[in-house]
Sodium:proton antiporter (Marinomonas ushuaiensis DSM 15871), 124 residues
Amino acid sequence: MPLYLEIIICISLLIGAVFLLIGSYGLIRLPDIYMRLHSPTKASTLGITGVLVASMIFQSHLKGSFSVQELLITLFLLITAPVAANMIAKTALHYRKKPLERTQNQELMETIRDREEPQKPSES
């Protein structure tokens, strides 16, 4: 394997590892569930993307053609992580988990929680 590919793979792995470490630390350290959601959905997703990019480069070199599997995994993660975070936040909101006192716009939480489904237009 050429030296420049090894350097690119190592840099990508290091960047991914740093973001994964930051995401893991944030998950432990942040005080409430609403803040904790940012850590795994942003930093950890970026970290996994760095590791998968390194794997894609390595596998493409081994096979001699472009490796699509890692790209599909990355796209799947980038699509599902925000959806999962949204669902977790909605669950915490409906279970009335209290945010920190210094959180702004807390009055909007009651409005969002008590919101009704939009009415379907009546068929005539």
Remarks:
- The two ends are 69 Å apart (CA to CA).
- The first helix runs from residue 3 to 29.
- Residues 1 and 40 are 33 Å apart (CA to CA).
- The helical segments are 3-29, 33-36, 38-63, 69-94, 107-113.
